[in-house]
Design a protein that fits this description.
With about 375 residues, the protein is of the alpha/beta class. Helix content is about 30%, strand content about 30%. The protein folds into two domains: about 5-290, Aminopeptidase; about 295-375, Urease, subunit C, domain 1, CATH 2.30.40. It has helices spanning about 5-15, 25-35, 75-90, 95-100, 115-120, 140-150, 190-210, 230-235, 255-275, and strands spanning about 40-45, 50-60, 65-70, 105-110, 155-160, 165-170, 175-180, 215-220, 240-245, 290, 295-305, 305-320, 325-335, 340-345, 350-355, 370, 375. The strands form four sheets. Strands 1-2-4-3-5-9-7-8 form an eight-stranded mixed beta sheet, sandwiched between helices. InterPro entries: Peptidase_M14 (IPR000834). Keywords: Hydrolase, Metalloprotease, Protease, Zinc.
């Protein structure tokens, strides 16, 4: 299938009831009802605060793929794309019908419903579930491990979102989508299991390069058995980390959502159409490792307290009365020559003040600064 065909599928099956970054059970539970006829839906456990955790099973094929999203509650882009994918598969679209004939998918759309509700990375016990794979101290971790053991997947998709700081290599290209074939031992050995994951990632990268050239990255593969991906990979199950990142001016991650959907579809078509052996893994190493080269805003060549410097600003994501807001915060001041801003403002050596004329310092939070006696919206 051509990439333009996949993009047309996205436009046709995009779940219009999901938008933005704040996605909770309130958003997805009405959508689950429409899948009752062709998707098996179960409550597979409960969170710390006793919210249900849903598991969805679709397909009849022998290749078994386990996917889970919002392990970190504030990483929701992959969840939106999951429902776009479910809409596609549930309609038995002819071009993807053979996915369901070759594969069985088990999807946990929100593993951490408490974190999703509070828009936090951690769960209600203040635990990062992605550091609990070995000790299994949390009910959500136990749910995932139980499904992993009973479903016995051939592939795992570990679905996450990443901050706006990441670049594809040490460049001014944002890492809009990132992947990782996690290590399965301390030596980061390129095992047969990892090669299979790498081959699938290489295929997704090939598709994405036609849309976002040089905006795909991979993460450092340092091994940590407490991380779910490393843990499942160490059990010889090819595991792929997906990271939904930033596209220019796309803070709601709607463009990235489409790109993640494309990655899902392209990978599932690849897995369903052939035996993935890991033989074609080497193209994985053409993908640059993520750098941390971005801030959200940089004011270049501003004067603060008679010093000429750059002012680096990062948006703080804050949930206020059920609404997600992006609050600019000064995080770094100096000569930021090795960093890039998703938005850059040239001050031309003019003085820069806070909104009320106060001197700027690191930690300053406001949506405005004063430049040339004008309020500048950050």
């Amino acid at each position: 299938m051509q990439i333009d065909d996949t993009r047309r599928l996205f436009l046709k099956y995009k779940e219009e009831h999901l938008y933005g970054r704040y996605i909770t059970h309130k958003d997805i539970e009405p959508l689950l009802k429409k899948f009752n006829k062709n998707i098996d839906i179960d409550i597979i456990g409960y969170s710390v605060l006793d919210h249900p955790i849903y598991g969805l099973k679709i397909g009849t094929g022998k290749k078994r793929i386990l996917m889970w999203s919002q392990m970190h509650g504030n990483e929701s882009t992959t969840t939106k794309a999951v429902f776009d994918l479910l809409n596609t598969l549930a309609d038995s679209e002819a071009v993807v019908k053979h996915i369901l004939e070759a594969c069985t998918l088990y999807i946990i759309p929100i593993l951490n419903p408490d974190g999703a509700l509070g828009y936090t990375r951690i769960n209600a016990n203040q635990v990062d579930l992605n550091r609990d794979a070995q000790n299994l101290t949390q009910p959500e971790s136990k749910v995932l491990k139980s499904i992993f053991e009973t479903f016995n997947p051939d592939f795992c998709y570990n679905l996450h979102g990443q901050r706006t700081i990441f670049s594809a290599g040490k460049t001014n290209n944002s890492a809009t989508v990132s992947f990782l074939a996690p290590a399965q031992d301390e030596a980061c050995t390129i095992t047969n299991t990892r090669k299979i994951a790498m081959e699938v990632i290489a295929q997704m990268n090939k598709a994405l390069q036609s849309i976002i050239p040089e905006q795909v990255g991979v993460y450092d593969d340092a091994f940590n058995l407490n991380c779910v991906g490393d843990n499942f990979q160490s059990n010889n199950v090819p595991t792929i980390l997906f990271e939904a990142g930033h596209y220019k001016n796309d803070y709601e991650r709607e463009i990235t959502r489409e790109l993640i959907y494309i990655a899902y579809v392209e990978s599932l078509l690849y897995i369903s159409s052939q035996e993935v052996t890991g033989r074609h893994y080497k193209d994985y190493f053409d993908i640059p490792e993520n750098g941390k080269c971005f801030l959200d805003v940089i004011i270049r060549n501003g004067k603060v307290d008679d010093k000429l410097l750059d002012i680096g600003i990062q948006y703080q994501e804050k949930l206020e009365n059920g609404e997600l807001k992006f609050i600019p915060k000064v995080v770094e001041m100096g000569r930021l020559n090795e960093l890039y801003g998703h938005k850059e403002i040239e001050a031309h050596e003019a003085e820069v003040f806070g909104e009320n004329g106060e001197e700027l310092t690191e930690g300053y939070e406001n949506v405005f600064v004063i430049l040339n006696n004008e309020k500048i919206l950050l």
